[in-house]
Each structure stands twice: as structure tokens, then as C-alpha cells.
Amino acid sequence: MLEARMAVQRLQAYHPPLAGRQGLRLDFNENTVGCSPRVLARMRALDAEALARYPDRELVEREVARFLGLDASQLLLTNGVDEGIHLLCSTYLEPEDEAVIVAPTFAMYSIFAQAEGAAFVEVRSGSDFSFPTEALLAKINPRTRFIAVANPNNPTGAAVSEDLLLQIADAAPQAAFLVDEAYFEFHGETLLARPARPANLFVARTFSKAYGLAGLRVGVLVGDSQQMAMVRRVASPYNVNAVALAVLPEALQDRAYVERYAAEVRRNRNLLEQELRALGLHYWPSRGNFVLVRIGSLYVEFVRSLRERGILVRDRNSDPGCEGAVRLTVGSDEHTRTLITALRAVVGDLSLGREVRA
Ligand SMILES: Cc1ncc(COP(=O)(O)O)c(C=O)c1O
């Protein structure tokens, strides 16, 4: 009988709750108003020939490289950051290796690392999700071959300083160290601004969040040219589809659209955090387009009540250290106003603020 590898049999299936997403979608950290109209126009102008051809990634990679101030040899366009993580794990992890990952964080790091048969070494964040620097450094050993840090982190919204990230890269030169900057546009700090980066450092970016293109599946993986040549060997030459490649230059050119949206989200993040304080709810200050809030024992009722009011939010209760926590995506002015109005009603109905204040 055909059997999957043991490493795969041991994996738990990961099912993001995508079913029945009707209403205001504040559950997946997407752009709540969608991509630039220029991107849509470019997509609508595609003809049959554009779809009949195999996609040519390289031309667009040169444009992305110019946009990021890099050489094209330093980057690879990927099918979302998800694929970038997968490729790094396939390129660097042997079954006897270890992957060091801070928890709580984005689920795909441990899934792809474990799929290679590597051991997943979880390092718990400190209280209030402070970055566990000492604990992480203590876990590094010669078998450590993959380390991933989301900066800012999902679901906590916490950011790590660049100096600390570089310290980790230095401490594990034998490991592929991924700094996942999926939420860069809402944070503003990036390791890509550094003129010289360690050879084991990789930085990932995505067009799924600020750019509003999660459905197209495009990300960028940046690293040392020689390392990227290795990673490219593992990637399909057609990993990014023709529609995504056709519209990407337009998305980059309409820089003003993304900057305007990111500024709107940053403003609304402040507004939401201010409202959460006023409601007496504990939250963690965020650098992303989302805020994690501690609801407590009534988190299921909270999520359900918001859903009944047409708003989807993400229950993060089962993430390490996130008991009773719910993540709220921050979007446009209008969507934030809608969220705040609903929050006031639900917090009142469930007497939530009182529970936290007590
Ligand atoms: C930290 C982080 N990295 C990567 C991703 C996925 O990015 P992509 O859509 O480019 O695969 C997410 C999505 O939620 C995320 O939170």
C-alpha cells in the first residue's frame, strides 16, 4: 500500500477557516478595499494569448529588483510568502536538522519544516509576547538549519529590532534565517534597507496584504545571490502565474495607492487601540494591519456576536499564549468605523469590559 512519508503522516492538517466568509472580512489580515484600480484595469486588458503562454518570471523579477533597490540575482518571485518558506525548508533542511521558531507565530514555518522531517524547536515568547532573545539563542546548535521570525509578528503584532535580528543571523551562520516582512508596509522598518546583509539571511515580502492581492498569490524572497541560486533550483520555473506577473508592474507603479492605504491602516490601528482601551479590553500594541485582543472566557460568543453583525474576526485561542484572544484586522476608515460600532455593542451585550476590568 502506498504510504506518505512518516514526516507527512505526523503533520496535522492545517485548515484556515475559509468557509462561509460572508460579511466584512477582518479575519485574514487582507486589504479590506482591494487592490489599485490600475491593477484591475491591467488584468481586464489581458487577452487569450497572455493566458496561453507559460509565464516568464524573469522580466518582472528585474522590475521588482529595481523597485527594492536590489540586483535580480538576489530575489525570487514566489507563489506567496508561503512558497518562499516551503522553498527555504526544501533547500536547507535535512531530516535530522532542527528548525527554531518563536511561538506564537504564523503556522506555515513549522508545517513546512516538519514536512521535511526536521525537528520543530518551539521557543515561547515572554509574557506579553516580548521577544525571547536569550531563549532563542540558547536553542541554536550545529543542527539548527532554519530559523523563522515574522517581523512584525502574526498574530501578536509585536516587532523586533533590526540589531537583534542581525544578532540571531550571526549566531547561526549554518542556518537559513528567514525574516518574514509580510506586514512591512504597516511597520515601515526593513532589513532590506541595510546595504550589507549576512549570507544566511533571507527576507520575505508579500503582495497579499497592503497591495490587496492575496488571491493572486505573489511574494518575494530576497537573499544572498549564491544562496538564491540554490533556492531557485528547487522552485518551479512557472511558480507565479501569468496574471500575477502581468499586473505586478502596475501594482509597483501605483505606489501612491499602497502608501495611502498603509497610512489609513496605521491611523485606524491607533483609533482601534484607543477604542479598545476605552472599552477596558486588553490588547497588544501592533505594528501590523491587525490587533490581538484578550477577550477571555467569552471569546466564542464574541466572535459569534460579531459574525451576527456581519463582521468576521479570527479566534486565536488555540495559539500558544493566546487563550481567549481574538485577532481583528484593521482596514479602511469606513470598515474601522463599522468595527468600532459593532465592538461597542458586543462588549456591552456580553459585559466584557467589566470582566477584564474586574
Ligand atoms: C507572517 C505572515 N507571513 C506570510 C503570510 C502569507 O503570505 P502570502 O499570502 O504571501 O503567502 C502571512 C499571512 O497571513 C503572514 O501572517
Relevant terms:
358 residues; alpha/beta; Aspartate Aminotransferase, domain 1; Aspartate Aminotransferase, domain 2; 2 domains; seven-stranded mixed β-sheet; five-stranded mixed β-sheet; 15 helices; 42% helix; binds pyridoxal-5'-phosphate
Overall pLDDT confidence: 96
CATH class value of the largest domain: Alpha Beta
Supply the CATH architecture of the largest domain. Answer: 3-Layer(aba) Sandwich
The tally of beta strands, per DSSP, is 12
- Helix and strand succession? HEHHHEHEHEHEHEHEEHHHEEHEEHH
Domain count, please report it: 2
Largest beta-sheet details: 7 strands, mixed
User: What kind of oligomer do you see?
Assistant: single chain
> Over all CA atoms, what is the radius of gyration?
21 Å
Strand content: 15-25%
Distance linking N and C termini = 59 Å
Number of helical runs? 15
Structural class: alpha/beta
What is this entry, summarized?
The chain has helices at about 5-10, 35-45, 50, 55-70, 80-90, 110-115, 135-140, 160-170, 185, 225-235, 240-255, 255-280, 300-310, 335-350, 350-355; strands at about 25, 75-80, 100-105, 120-125, 145-150, 175-180, 200-205, 220, 280-285, 290-295, 310-315, 325-330. The chain has about 350 residues and is of the alpha/beta class.
